[in-house]
Amino acid sequence: MSDEPHLLRAIAETPDDAALRLVYADWLEDNGEPGRSELVRVCERIRGVSVFSDEYWLLKARRDELRPGCPAEWLAATGYDGSRFGSG
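and the corresponding structure tokens:
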């Protein structure tokens, strides 16, 4: 049985829990989803850097490269569609 529905439910219940999102990123990587895993990590990192930093703009560009490779329903469920996180 997949742990993904349980992880997504936990994320929906505590959307600001960055540690939980990073656990989910590890799970995605371990289960053959490197693109989604990287997107989670990039979006979580982008939340912690200043928009005035070079790192922010590099992360934003990478996020924009990764998003099209992810299912729209997954992006919406995680908030990485721009509705909650990584919309800058």
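(Above: one complete record from the training split.) The mean pLDDT is 92.
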